[in-house]
Structure formats: structure tokens, C-alpha cells
Amino acid sequence: MTDRTQAALAVVREALSRYTDAQPGDMQLDTALPDIQIDSLTLAELLFELEDRLNTTIPETTAVPRRVGDLVALVEPLLPPAPGEAEVAPVFSLPNVA
Predict the structure, then answer these.
(1) How far is CA 79 from the centre of its chain?
(2) What is the pTM assigned to this prediction?
(3) pLDDT digit string, tens, across residues 14-34
(4) Which residue from 3, 18, 27, 92 has the highest number of Cβ atoms inside 10 Å of its Cβ?
(5) pLDDT by residue (tens digit) across 62-71?
(6) CB under 8 Å to 47, separation ≥6 — which residues?
(7) pLDDT at 63
(8) CA 60/CA 92 separation, integer angstroms
(9) Of 6, 17, 18, 25, nearest to 75 (Cα)?
């Protein structure tokens, strides 16, 4: 796991800890959100909190996050660059519209 992925996981764990009784150490990338009592309404609140914390908008995706790792994948490209790290614009794939 890269340093950036670890940083994103820490952000997600911190935010999740406000919505669940699960311990941060129990929140692994493969942990299913329903297993830590995150339902669709709570997920929406969580995503708004992450947007506020990161001062950005999380792009709407075609897939609803189902696991902690899905949230980490959303957050990771939105984190500010670490000192000495080159800033890279997030890349999002858009559906083909014909």
C-alpha cells in the first residue's frame, strides 16, 4: 500500500468512525460498508462530510461504494499533494455517450 493510499485510508477511517462503532483497525480495504453499519443514508452523509473535509466535490460515480476500499479510491486522488510530491490532477473516466 502506498503512502498516499494509507493517507486516504486514514481520512476514510476517521470519517467512518463518526458513523459507526467499529474500531478503525477493523476497517480494512475489503471491509463491506454494511458490515460496519453503513447504510445508504449514512453513506450519503459520509460522502458530504468527506467533500467538506477535502474542500472539493466527489465526482458522481456509476458504482455506489460498497467497501472501505471503494471510499479510499474516491478520496485518494482528491488528497492534497504531500510535501515534495508533484501535484497530479485526478483522472476520471466518463461513460461513452453516443
Answers:
(1) 10
(2) 0.80
(3) 999 999 999 998 999 999 999
(4) 27
(5) 688 999 999 9
(6) 58, 74
(7) 81
(8) 10
(9) 6
Write out the three cell numbers for 42.
449514512
d(CA 40, CA 76): 21
Helix (H) or strand (E) holding 8: helix 3-16
Is the separation of the CB atoms in 63 and 41 below 8 Å? no
| Number of continuous H segments (helices) and E segments (strands) in the chain | 3, 0
Length of the chain: 98
Residue 70 burial class via C-beta count within 10 angstroms: exposed 0-12, middle 13-18, buried 19 and up: middle
Judge contact between 5 and 70, C-beta under 8 A.
no
The grid coordinates listed for 71 are 471510499
| Confidence grade of residue 97 (pLDDT, cut at 50, 70, 90) | low
**pLDDT over 50 (residue 60):** yes
User: Which grid coordinates belong to 12?
Assistant: 476514510
